[in-house]
Amino acid sequence: MPYSPEAVEEAIKHRFNRINGRYVLIYELSDKLNTDKSLYHIINEDETGYLSNDEQVWILECNIQIITEESLKKQDDILASFSEKLDLLERELEKEAEEIQHGQNNDSE
Fold first, then answer.
1. Cβ atoms < 10 Å from Cβ of 27
2. What is the predicted pLDDT for the residue at 82?
3. What is the DSSP secondary structure assignment for residue 84, as one 8-state letter?
4. Per-residue pLDDT, 12
5. What's the predicted TM-score (pTM) here?
6. Nearest to 20 by CA among 6, 40, 4, 34
C-alpha cells in the first residue's frame, strides 16, 4: 500500500510490518485480514513474485522468526519423539545383534 499516516497506523497493529517512505507492507500468516482494499497484505509466497529481492528477504526473515518460535514452543515434544525413535532403533539393533549371534552359535555347533 502507498505510504500514508493511515497505512502506518494500520501496519503498527501487526507483528510483521515494513514501512518506508514509499510503501507499507503487512505480512500475516492467516486469512483473517483487514478487508480494507487500500491495504496491501502479503498472505503467502504465491504473492511474492512481484516484490523486490529485499522485500522477499524480509518475508523470509519473518518466516524464519516464526519457525524458530514454533520450534522452541514444541522443543520438548520434538525431543521426546526423537528419544522414542532412538529407543526403538536401539531395541531393533539389539534384536538384530541377537539374531546374528544366535545364527553364529548355530553355525559353530
1. 22
2. 93
3. H
4. 84
5. 0.50
6. 4
